[in-house]
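User: Second chain of the day. Same drill as before.
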Amino acid sequence: MRTKSQEFWKGVQDEAPILLGVVPFGLLFGALAINARLPVPTAQAMSMIIFAGSAQFIATQMIGAGVSGLVILMVIFVVNLRHALYSASMAPHLRHLPPAWKFLLSYLLTDEAYAVAITHYQQEGELDRKHWYFLGAGLTLWSSWQFSTAAGIFVGAQIPQDWPLSFVLPLTFIALVVPSLKDRAGTAAACSAGMVGLLALDLPLRTGLLLAALIGILVGLAVEKRQEP
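Assistant: Same format as last time:
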């Protein structure tokens, strides 16, 4: 069994490769926020408070376009609803923790942190110290996002706009998801969710994301039920 320190640094180690896809987007967000004429403290505060790249990009673009605050809040709420699915998935593993730990880890629960943490929790071993792994992964991602945002604010505007960096984050998620597809149910869920996500890409308020998640869950459950003896 690993010690608390070993679990923490294992989380840092496993999260580190993912930063190759995260840091460029932090730089781009910082540059985008400045181009949208957001004050520097506001741009940095978005990364500290919202701490959700997709929501930050959408919010910044809508602010720059002069969209009303109520509409921005509604869109961000819809986009971030996927975190409720992450929370439901993690809840059984965190049930034994005191409230302070749950609040901290809920703040650090992002796409990339969830991907490595849930994989670690699904491996054999006692739960007593695995939350230290989650903490290490989450803090690694959080600190890199803050630093890359700050760098983007001050120097990111110099990045050529024709650099094809938009594909980096999707490739990162593909690299995370594909190795975990070890049965028919998971594969069917991923494939169906991906297809629906593409077909529903133009739905208003990013509701296509939620529809894809829902369809993926239902398909996965249906395939799993058919496999039961």
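The chain has twelve helices and no strands.

User: Great, on to the next one.
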